[in-house]
UniProtKB/TrEMBL annotation:
<dbReference type="InterPro" id="IPR004255">
    <property type="entry name" value="O-acyltransferase_WSD1_N"/>
</dbReference>
<dbReference type="Pfam" id="PF03007">
    <property type="entry name" value="WS_DGAT_cat"/>
</dbReference>
<dbReference type="GO" id="GO:0004144">
    <property type="term" value="F:diacylglycerol O-acyltransferase activity"/>
</dbReference>
<dbReference type="GO" id="GO:0005886">
    <property type="term" value="C:plasma membrane"/>
</dbReference>
<dbReference type="InterPro" id="IPR045034">
    <property type="entry name" value="O-acyltransferase_WSD1-like"/>
</dbReference>
<keyword id="KW-0319">Glycerol metabolism</keyword>
<comment type="similarity">
    <text>Belongs to the long-chain O-acyltransferase family.</text>
</comment>
<keyword id="KW-0444">Lipid biosynthesis</keyword>
<keyword id="KW-0012">Acyltransferase</keyword>
<protein>
    <recommendedName>
        <fullName>diacylglycerol O-acyltransferase</fullName>
        <ecNumber>2.3.1.20</ecNumber>
    </recommendedName>
</protein>
<dbReference type="GO" id="GO:0051701">
    <property type="term" value="P:biological process involved in interaction with host"/>
</dbReference>
<dbReference type="InterPro" id="IPR009721">
    <property type="entry name" value="O-acyltransferase_WSD1_C"/>
</dbReference>
<dbReference type="InterPro" id="IPR014292">
    <property type="entry name" value="Acyl_transf_WS/DGAT"/>
</dbReference>
<comment type="pathway">
    <text>Glycerolipid metabolism; triacylglycerol biosynthesis.</text>
</comment>
<comment type="pathway">
    <text>Lipid metabolism.</text>
</comment>
<dbReference type="GO" id="GO:0001666">
    <property type="term" value="P:response to hypoxia"/>
</dbReference>
<feature type="domain" description="O-acyltransferase WSD1-like N-terminal">
    <location>
        <begin position="4"/>
        <end position="264"/>
    </location>
</feature>
Length: 454
């Protein structure tokens, strides 16, 4: 039995019918050249009939909403779906299906995850040349980086390896990795001791904030403007996905002397500016992004080990270079503060610094207040190609959560030589969110053209 951390508890408490708190991944595969018509069907049968029980974290079930305990009554029918889309299905059809599934709550009375194997997706004008795996798991069980690590452990680095186990039993296949995946057992007393030792550093950090907030690059939790992105959400979700060459982002980062993630934020900022201008709804003040910042220093693949920084997206600036420089200055300022803190101190500091924003999302007590406008998350993926029974993984789109009063989420994943973006939005609060895909492409092209002009 394992105690839920404060962050895990928060993800459970935030969940409502209109605010599902699971994260997901849409994995797009291309069929091997020698695949027959029943290739995906055999994969589905293999997964459905496997007698190997789920491994951690897929065997964890809530106990009194305070503990995780191992579930000994696994029923595959509660977790696995095999879907054949009507041919010739396009990427838009796949995203429509996944959007509908991403809108639905997970069952809290069993391990909180689902796996959907989807076939019949066209590629290069040919029907059925691709298939997909959509996996969703509750955010209380795992964070994005841990989820990506589980994916890498479940897939193969070579096309000729064959695996007879389902993804949720992956640790039986790679027993030597258990120590790097299973969490360390921590008692309530041990957790309390860690947090107590962290309190002095947290107090010092909060006092420094009083002085540092006069720095022009400091982003406060009170400066996010009102925008159409910040409305109550419905249960309806729309997912949109697109991939770009990673080298295009790196060239911009190298040219301007900023980080890769700064360029990602700048491209997202420009896309948001274009979208809001088209809606005649661009705030005069810059939008503020809530950016997950990983505290994971080990090879673990469980739980939540992250905090958040605030980034000024400078959406009020028309010049893309000025926006990029403003973003770089604000993220550098935020990261510098967290660099002075330990992992425990960072988590407590975040809980205190963002407490009002959390209460607003959780309870709606402060309807006129918001600490940020949206979440933008960059999750590192595999640097080498991955395969499943010879089928090459072509793209990995991370589907994240949408909060009440935070109707848009942008999450991306680096995979080999590309960046895979997934836009998650409340389809009622943010109409035509699929247009962000074109706006992202336009903004990246603008920055790339500026690099060439140097």
């Amino acid at each position: 039995m394992r105690v839920l951390s404060a962050v895990d508890q928060l993800f459970l408490r935030l969940e409502t019918r209109n605010q599902p708190m699971h994260i997901g991944g849409l994995f797009l595969f291309r069929l091997p050249d020698d695949a027959d018509a029943d290739f995906v069907g055999r994969l589905a049968e293999q997964m459905r009939t496997s007698q190997i029980p789920p491994s951690f974290p897929f065997n964890q079930i809530l106990h009194r909403e305070l503990f995780w305990q191992t579930d000994g009554r696994f029923d595959v029918e509660q977790h696995f779906r095999h879907i054949a889309l009507p041919k010739p299905a396009q990427m838009a059809d796949l995203l429509t299906y996944v959007s509908q599934e991403h809108s639905k709550l997970l069952n809290r009375h069993s391990p909180m995850w689902e796996c959907h194997l989807i076939e019949g997706i066209a590629a290069d004008g040919q029907a059925g040349q691709r298939f997909a795996l959509y996996f969703k798991i509750h955010h209380a069980l795992i964070d994005g980086i841990a989820g990506l690590r589980l994916v890498q452990k479940s897939l193969s680095p070579t096309a000729d390896e064959r695996v007879s186990l389902p993804a949720w039993s992956l640790m039986t296949r790679k027993r030597h990795l258990i120590d790097s995946v299973l969490p360390t057992d921590q008692s309530l007393l041990r957790v309390a001791k860690q947090q107590t030792r962290a309190l002095p550093a947290v107090g010092q950090a909060l006092l420094r904030n009083v002085v540092e907030r006069f720095d022009g690059d400091y982003v406060t939790t009170t400066q996010a403007p009102d925008s159409i992105l910040n409305q109550k959400v419905s249960s309806a979700r729309r997912l949109s996905a697109v991939s770009f060459e990673l080298s295009r982002f790196r060239r911009v980062a190298d040219a301007f002397g900023v980080s890769l993630n700064d360029v990602v934020l700048a491209v997202c900022s420009g896309a948001l500016r274009r979208y809001l201008l088209a809606q005649q709804a661009l705030p005069r003040k810059p939008l503020i992004a809530f950016v997950p910042y990983s505290l994971r220093t080990d090879n673990s693949a469980s739980g939540n080990q992250l905090t958040f920084i605030l980034a000024n997206l400078a959406t009020h600036l028309a010049d893309p270079v000025e926006r990029l420089q403003a973003i770089h200055a604000s993220t550098r300022n935020s990261k510098r503060r967290f660099a002075r803190l330990s992992q425990s101190s960072s988590i407590i500091y975040s809980a205190l610094a963002y407490s009002r924003a959390g209460l607003q999302i959780l309870t709606g007590l402060f309807p006129e207040y918001r600490g940020f406008n949206l979440i933008i998350s960059n999750v590192p993926g595999s640097k080498t190609p991955l395969y499943w029974h010879g089928a090459k993984l072509e793209a990995l789109y991370p589907a994240s959560v949408v909060f009440n009063d935070q109707a848009l989420n942008i999450t991306l994943c680096t995979y080999v030589d590309q960046m895979d973006f997934c836009i998650a939005a409340c389809s009622k609060a943010v109409p035509h969110s699929e247009r962000f895909l074109d706006y992202l492409a336009q903004e990246l092209a603008t920055l790339a053209a500026l690099v060439k002009s140097f």
